[in-house]
Amino acid sequence: MDEILEILEKDGRxxxxxxxxxxxxxxxxxxxxxxxxxxEGAILKYKAVINKDLIKDTESEVRALIEVxxxxxxxxxxxxxxxxxxxxxxxxxxxxxxxxxxxxxxxxGKNLHTVSNFVAEKLSCxxxxxxxxxxxxxxxxxxDGVILKQKSExxxxxxxx
Amino acid sequence: MKISKVVExxxxxxxxxxxxxxxxxxxxISLGVGEPDFVTPWQIREAGIYSLEQGFTSYTSxxxxxxxxxxxxxxxxxxxxxxxxxxxxxxxxxxxxxGLDLVLRAIINPGDKILIPVPSYVSYGPVTExxxxxxxxxxxxxxxFKITPKLLEKHIDQKTKAVILNYPTNPTGVSYRRKExxxxxxxxxxxxxxxxxxxxxxxxxYDFEHVAxxxxxxxxxxxxxxxxxxxxxAMTGWRVGFACGPKEIIAAMTKIHQxxxxxxxxxSQMAAAEALVSAKKSVEQMKREYNRRREFxxxxxxxxxxxxxxxxxxxxxxxxxxxTGLSSMDFSRKLLEEEKVAVVPGTAFGLSxxxxxxxxxxxxxxxxxxxxxxxxxxxxxxx
Lengths: 161, 383
Prior knowledge:
The complex is a heterodimer of chains A (161) and B (383). Chain A is 31% helix and 21% strand.
């Protein structure tokens, strides 16, 4: 992967000037490369990684992983039905997977009730959805490569040869 | 109690007092650390833990675990096409530090001279003296901090036994290309001066491929090669290094090692064996990260007016502070007191380090940036 992407993947706020210094290129060249990535859709967006355990009163306190079994449609396969599912705002991620189930759908909601309602009233009733299995998330340890705990203290001595 | 004369005259130095000052202060941003800011990659730590679970808590052979010596053999063969017999030409030591002490004690007769290009790592001189040798310091500050054939020729005499090379170099980060090493090697062979080559930063070489000294023409029989796990694998606290060289020298070193150390901790050896097997990718990742910080810091320091060469390896920069008119020690002390930024005065690494400071970029980019902001403020006040 290009170093610019590698740097931005770790720190979306890294400035063009800093990146240019780090990889020993002209800021203009870096700026151009980033614009190109954004245009191509290689860089989709920039966002903060938030540890929601520390935030009170969010709209997404409960999260569930839902395995969905679907009947593929002639000519369209899974695409059409997947689209109908991932278009719900409650769905934060949606993957086609191999194994017993077809789709893995991640749903967020304010409480158990809202998530269950979504499954019972919206997801399960879709035609072509043959069955679902809902797993509520109890604790997050690591997400997208980030370990979700407070920074550990510095263990090195402050000066050494 | 009477203390040995050799020990008594060993550098007491203002540096110690400065270090104590740093350690006693809170909320210091330190660019003075001589070790990686990464923790040891997990698979290596896991191997150490697993070995404890399995009950590996005994001594190992004096030379070190055969499994580890064999991995080192393979590593050197793969990386440099360099072959050392794991049985007779390899010794596992408590970091490179122990290895250097062993080799100097193994080869020095009273009055033998050891050449040490300076600025250099702090232990070379004192350990030479402890072994009964005479350190001969060669000032490299006028040659871009590199030892040259000419400088060597100038300092070699009948009593010269060996030279201690260290590249990439702590504290300057300087390293050598093959051509330069070939010329150095010729001088050493001509005068039968042994090469003690400390290459512990080898895996952190950025601009070209590192050349191991024993791979040079006819150099292997005249070189004791040192490397370790501390820097590249972020394993400083595990204390594992190794020495490879002609079997009679390794045998002599092993003799001393068996009486003084016995063997390196088995947990550390088990972890180190895992490092060579599975941590190549982690090393590459860390290296890329260091490289970015190196580029960033060199650009920024020069912009602030601290003239700084771009070093080829390790994680140190050695900028000149001469235009501030301050001595290395005064600069470092004032920077610490006024802005709470710790650096190491160049003089810690020999008198030819006067006018320079050592900056370690083994620190997060956020830390480096904050340190630069403070450094800028400090320099503006001094103008």
